[in-house]
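Quick one, probably user error.
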């Protein structure tokens, strides 16, 4: 299946950094904030136990880990940030502080400024609005030093910025961020082989121990997602066909094993369905939504990433995006409950309470709901 799928010779050396303000930055930041807000109950418990730690009367070096076990409630990483732990202990020991809302979803990022601000600006100066400004003034990626410092206090928080939340396709952020047209082909080929069973995938996938439910792309392959690639007119024509075929195979998975003329016939029918007025009395259920609705959770989230990649590829390659957007809307229709659950549980809302994931998808596909 993957014959002729070798990475092209790029016109300059691939870049490994993420472009500024990549689309996933919004989601990464909001997942990070949500995790930190969820972790505050644990942080409070650890901070109150900190004064009871072994060797409290003998100050520890900031990088020293005690030779005897710390209280089970306190992560070992706290012994790498002794001063921060002392500040948090003092904050949570204050009998006059305002209690945190018990409902995690009712907590506002401004609460993180109250709790963690003193770590970055001192007790007297306060912490300003670093966390709440990530909502109010637009989201900018936190620096690695701050990510790691807070990960020592709230273990696992850095991972929520760097990786998709559990249950979401681990290719999803890359589908939002890639700037190399070639990279999008990975997603279009995955439509045809959703289980990635073809041996041709082997050079493109990470080693199995790193796999969640969906195999991860190999690090070297992921680095090509920003590599410059100058497509020819012939490349653009092929991308258009690949997008059309991917729409058809999402709606009708059996087409992956069918002759090419059957795929072409299905593409023609789907183009007609996409062009039909949505208010027509003869409107039938979206064929992509029907197909995706039959998939398991892993398949649904992979289908979403594939459609996102196809939709972005169409715009980047100056291909009429309407058919790809129709594809993405169909996937979103089938996944609206999944998307709304993830928005509520895993991401802080954007300004004016807009749901994060739904907003990002709306920008690509149009409204998820009428």
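Nope, works fine. Designed sequence:
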């Amino acid at each position: 299946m993957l014959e002729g799928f070798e990475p092209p010779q790029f016109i300059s050396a691939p870049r490994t950094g993420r472009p500024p303000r990549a689309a996933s930055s919004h989601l990464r930041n909001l997942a990070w904030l949500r995790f930190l807000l969820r972790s505050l109950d644990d942080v409070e418990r650890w901070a109150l136990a900190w004064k009871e730690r072994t060797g409290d009367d003998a100050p520890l070096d900031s990088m020293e880990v005690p030779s005897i076990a710390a209280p089970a409630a306190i992560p070992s990483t706290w012994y790498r940030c002794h001063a921060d732990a002392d500040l948090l202990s003092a904050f949570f020991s204050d009998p006059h502080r305002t209690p945190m809302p018990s409902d995690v979803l009712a907590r506002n990022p401004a609460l993180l400024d109250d709790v963690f601000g003193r770590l970055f600006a001192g007790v007297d100066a306060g912490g300003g609005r670093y966390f709440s400004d990530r909502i109010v003034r637009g989201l900018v990626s936190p620096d690695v030093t701050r990510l790691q410092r807070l990960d020592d206090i709230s273990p696992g928080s850095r991972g929520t910025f760097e990786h998709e939340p559990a249950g979401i396709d681990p290719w999803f952020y890359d589908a939002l961020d890639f700037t190399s047209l070639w990279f999008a082909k990975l997603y279009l080929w995955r439509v045809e082989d959703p289980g990635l069973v073809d041996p041709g995938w082997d050079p493109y996938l990470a080693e199995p121990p790193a796999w969640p439910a969906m195999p991860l792309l190999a690090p070297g392959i992921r680095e090509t997602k920003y590599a410059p690639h100058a497509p020819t007119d012939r490349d653009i024509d092929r991308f258009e066909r690949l997008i059309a075929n991917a729409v058809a195979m999402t709606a009708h998975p059996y087409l992956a094993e069918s002759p090419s003329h059957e795929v072409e016939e299905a593409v023609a029918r789907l183009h007609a369905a996409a062009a039909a007025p949505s208010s027509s009395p003869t409107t039938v259920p979206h064929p992509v939504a029907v197909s995706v609705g039959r998939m398991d959770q892993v398949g649904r989230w992979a289908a979403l990433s594939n459609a996102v990649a196809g939709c972005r590829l169409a715009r980047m390659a100056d291909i009429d995006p309407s058919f790809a957007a129709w594809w993405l809307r169909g996937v979103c229709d089938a996944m609206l409950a999944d998307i709304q659950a993830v928005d509520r549980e895993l991401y802080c809302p954007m300004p004016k309470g807009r749901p994060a994931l739904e907003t990002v998808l709306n920008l690509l596909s149009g409204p998820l709901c009428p």
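The CA atoms of residues 160 and 196 lie 26 Å apart.
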